[in-house]
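task queued by scheduler; priority normal; single chain, no ligands, no partner chains; default sampling; output format set to C-alpha cells
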Amino acid sequence: MGTKAALTAGTTAVALLLLLAGCSATPESLESKSDNVSQNYADNYEEVYRRLTSTARRCVTGGTNAARNEVVSNLHQELGFAVVRFVVIGVFADNYFLSAKIEKMGSGSRVSVKTNNPIISDRLNKKVFRWAGGDQECNP
C-alpha cells in the first residue's frame, strides 16, 4: 500500500470515528433514549420487519478493516414486535447507532426509530422509513 493510500485509509478511519462520536456503546443505552420518531404502515409488522431487515442488511453491511457495519435483528412473534439495530463493530468496542422497533398495531404496524448521532439521524430515519415501506434502494 502506498503512502497516499495509507493516508487516505487513515483519514477515512478517523472520519468514521469522529462521525460516530457520541454513539451508544450498548443497545440498552440506545433504547433508554427518550426521543424517537415513528411512522405507521398498513402492512403487518412481520412483513415490515422482513422488508426493513433485508434491505438494511444489503445496504448497511460492510466497512473498513478498522470497523464494519452490521445489522442485528430480532423478531419476537410471541410479543408482537421486532427490533432492528445498526451497529459499527469496531476494534475496541461495538457502537450501536440506530434502533428501529416494529410493533403490531391492529392489522398494521408502527416503526419507531432512535438514533444516537444527531449529525446523521435525519438521513438514517428517512432511509429506515423508506425501507420499511418497501423501497429497496440503498441511496435515493
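post-processing summary
- Confidence is low (pLDDT under 50) at residues 5-11, 13-22.
- The two ends are 33 Å apart (CA to CA).
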